[in-house]
Amino acid sequence: MDYRGLGLKVGLEIHQQLATHKLFCEDASVLVDSSDGHRFRRRLRPTQSELGEVDAAAIEEAKRRLTFVYEATPNSCLVEADEEPPHPPNPEALDIALEIALLLEAKCASEVDFMRKIVIDGSNTSGFQRSALVALDGHFETGGKRIGVPTILLEEDAARKLGEAEGEVVYRLDRLGIPLVEIATSPDIETPEEAREVALAFGSLLRATRKVMRGIGTIREDLNVSIKGGSRIEIKGVQELRLISTFVEKEVERQRMLLEAAAELKRRGIRSIPAEVHNLSAAFKGTQSKVVATALKKGGVVLGWSLPGFAGLLKGKLGPELAAHARVAGVAGIFHSDELPAYGITSSEVTAARTALRIGEQDAFVLVAEEEEKARGAIGEMVPRAAAAIEGVPPETREPRPDGTTVYSRPLPGKARMYPETDVPPIRVTRERLDRIREHLPERPDVTEARLAREYAIHEQQTHQLVQEGVDELFELIAREFGEPRLVATVLLYTFSELRRESLDVDGIPVDRLRELFSLLKAGRFAKEAVPEVLREMAGRGVRASEALSSLGVKGMNREELETIVDAVLDESEDMIRARGETAEKALMGRVMERVRGRADGKLVSEVLHARLAARVSGRKDERKKGKR
User: Quick check: 201 and 195 in contact, CB under 8 A?
Assistant: First the structure.
């Protein structure tokens, strides 16, 4: 697909947790498996900004009328419960944010002022998030391209969502208040793959500080995506960076579909959307649809809403868009004419609905079966979305799904959600503070890659992967201590990747246990061919390398023992050797390695086998010569 021809523009907002205690208190920045048993409930409402405006996204969240349940944890306090004013901001977190800003060659603010950003989705007990501008006008070069970084902020992370039930959402407070640095890029990215590469490059830069948290959920991306004729769509909270290109691809497909639907509606002469709602309950009195029958049995209604000229544009296109907006009102779903008859709704009921709504074959309709207030609210939410379909792509925030698709969340937030934080005093950023940080800036990823290739004689592609995956420091530690840099790189990049695919937590193996593994390897306790098997045992059972070797029965082998095994294989393979001579070596190597099973180095095995096989073949030739005489 010609993404540049489509006018694709992508900007990233990178949110990275910092490896320090919480931003406005001294609690540890860790996630816990259970609460401390204390729960409390809150209802949140939108408030006006300092300009007297109310943010559209906050209004949308308020319509859901949710109750929020918060689980306190050992690392949450009265600050997270919004029962105590914030403590002075964590100076270490600010230093890290300033360090990142200097790495991005940004202009650091001379004074840091925290603001309140209105958020009433329950992710913060106070109804707002504290956020401060740290630096402006930075940039980063990757893949030969300059990516602008207009803003760098320091803010607090949100509470962790555990689940949702009828009218109630449960959050845990362990994550609330963990310091985040937010890096916003300019919309300079032009392809899905470039978006992925830029995100990975920024991740490498952040990890280069050695002061950020690692693991799933510690870095999250918001993607801002648009194409020519479309609008800016924010995909909020992508955690799997390798899926970024997929999210962009699918959003481009969605926007193209919406633009095509808008063009078709205009060709059909559709200029407005009726808001009139009809009660069609009588037409479904004896229905076989379980959903409709259940709603009617509970005293609900079946409401119908007509969409003139929309026939054929709902199924797989505008239907899911409308359904997502209907859910804001609390309904589970909708029916629409493009997918009917189905779900127990018969063709005669569809005809009855069309007759009652007075619509033709080119028109579509939507049915909502629920209690009347919710049903009317759902249609009320869908009407403006259907009207927006005539224009094309409405700007909005969408939530990511594991398959790379997204679902509507709320309107795009705007400036109306910001107002000053009165509980946190301004912080002066002195020249002396910046000079101190500048003197200890870490090596940039591109410099690290070049140095690793030069000092350890490994391929540039491997150094790039080591830095990109954040294991360059671990690589250097092990390679300096035990040698074998190529083997160490192979294990950290490829063996680890294979074991992850087996759902083994190799990343959770402590560094001291990895050092022990390579120490035993260097001492000849086992061969490098056994490394994957030993790591599999270490990760699967959570044991040390020595214990894994013991349980696997893997131990080193001297040359004499190896020669005995090689001779046994050669004896058993007389027919093959007689027929193929020295060309049988490759097949024989597999048989020997199967018996050695990681107890001898492959290079040594090859050397011994080659010599013993050559001796046998040569001996046979000599015997044949003597026979001829």
Answer: no
In this structure, the dihedral spanned by the alpha carbons of residues 519, 522, 526 and 527, taken in order and rounded to 10 degrees, is 130
Do 212 and 206 form a contact (C-beta atoms < 8 A)? yes
One of 3.90.79.10, 3.30.1340.30, 3.30.1360.30, 3.40.1010.20 is the CATH number of 277-390, namely 3.30.1360.30
Radius of gyration of the chain (CA): 32
pLDDT tens for each residue of 266-313 = 999 999 999 999 999 999 999 999 999 999 999 999 999 999 999 999
Q: Give the Å distances, CA to CA, from 371 to 47, 165, 382.
A: 30, 18, 17
Amino acid at 89: P
Tell the residue number behind the tokens 């996204």, with chain if given.
57
Looking at residue 398, its amino acid is R
Distance, CA of 109 to chain centre: 31
Is omega for the bond preceding 341 within 30 degrees of 0, making it cis?
yes
307 closest CA partner among 261, 270, 356, 335: 270
pLDDT at 562 over 70: no
Within 13 A of 509's CA, how many CA atoms are on the CB side? 28
Side-chain half-sphere exposure of 495, counting CA atoms within 13 A: 18
Sign of the dihedral through C-alpha 84, 85, 89, 93: positive
| Phi and psi angles of residue 541, each rounded to the nearest 5 degrees, phi first | -110, -5
Task: Please state, in angstroms and rounded to a whole number, the distance separating the CA atoms of residues 208 and 210.
Answer: 5
Residue 313's identity, in one-letter code, is L
The one-character DSSP state at 471 is: -
Is the distance from CB of 308 to CB of 363 less than 8 angstroms? yes
| Three-state secondary structure call for residue 469 | coil
Banded pLDDT at 610 (limits 50, 70, 90): confident
A 10 A CB-CB count for 527 gives: 22
Contacts of 498 (CB under 8 A, 6+ apart): 532
What are 189's strand-pairing partners?
Answer: 10
Q: CA nearest 338: which of 320, 356, 352, 355?
A: 320
pTM of the model: 0.82
CA distance 249 to 406: 11
Q: Indicate the pLDDT class of residue 35, thresholds 50, 70 and 90.
A: confident
Select, from the ranges 191-195, 547-551, 559-563, 604-608, the one with the highest average predicted confidence (pLDDT).
191-195
Q: CA-based angle 222:225:226, to the nearest 5?
A: 160
3-state DSSP call for residue 597? coil
pLDDT (average), residues 532-541: 91
